[in-house]
């Protein structure tokens, strides 16, 4: 086997694995456009560099048929082990940073990732479906400030350390039971157009695709770590239709 052929075989295997990883990320854990909202591009580029580019490149450099079979096997095994270890580490980072909840509170949504929630808070969840984090994409939930004075004070104090209400799973409630409240708070589409004059055609297209009139739709801001989005909803029932990659405030 030639050096180039060995490198191309390595590249092919790496590309197949990278494609599977990419599909898992974009289709399950980070559905569009949440990947952009949480800044997943940086992690993806690192994964692609290590597992698609660097591994085959090293194989191209060190592969030498003049080496003994034992030495060559050791070299290739070392590359493969290093590559797999880097992939596992990268995937663990991606998994921990995956979006798990779209939390509605007050007048907007918050995109909550797995690493934003602590185990001690998760076990306090009042609904059994929130005792474990979702594995197949983010789930919509509703939350509001607790009426108990002690609990309310705890949430308010936590704001000083950067922990807001959406990061308390013990106050999560099924989104489906509060769609009427969400519907009443929806902002008019006209406001979204004023904020994004360069995206008016895109907004009009989203309205047409919804099968509703503009007057029947509204939107909410979605706060995320890297880029905020606009969430399109129906005013009559609060049903979420689409997320738009544009300024929501």
Give an account of the 3D structure:
The protein has 249 residues and is of the alpha+beta class. The protein folds into three domains: 3-96, no CATH class; 100-180, no CATH class; 186-249, no CATH class. It is 49% helix and 16% strand. It contains nine helices and eight strands. It has helices at 3-29, 34-37, 40-62, 69-96, 119-122, 149-158, 179-185, 189-195, 200-210; strands at 99-105, 108-113, 139-142, 173-174, 187-188, 217-223, 229-234, 240-244. Strands 1, 2, 3, 4, 5, 6, 7 and 8 form an eight-stranded mixed β-sheet that branches. Helix 1 packs antiparallel against helix 3 and helix 3 (40-62) packs antiparallel against helix 4 (69-96). The longest helix is centred in the first third of the chain and has 28 residues, at 69-96. The protein is elongated, with a radius of gyration of 23 Å. The relative contact order is 0.11.
Integer count of domains: 3
Q: Can you tell me the residue ranges where pLDDT is under 50 for at least 5 consecutive residues?
A: none
* Overall pLDDT confidence: 90
Order of helices and strands: HHHHEEHEHEHEHHEEE
Assembly type? single chain
Identify the overall geometry. Answer: elongated
Fraction in beta strands? 15-25%
Number of DSSP E strands: 8
The CA-CA distance between the termini, in Å, is 59 Å
- Overall SS class: alpha+beta
Biggest sheet details: 8 strands, mixed
Number of helices: 9
Q: How do the helices and strands line up, and which of them pair or pack?
A:
Elements: H1 3-29, H2 34-37, H3 40-62, H4 69-96, E1 99-105, E2 108-113, H5 119-122, E3 139-142, H6 149-158, E4 173-174, H7 179-185, E5 187-188, H8 189-195, H9 200-210, E6 217-223, E7 229-234, E8 240-244
Parallel strand pairs: 1-3, 2-6
Antiparallel strand pairs: 1-2, 3-4, 5-6, 6-7, 7-8
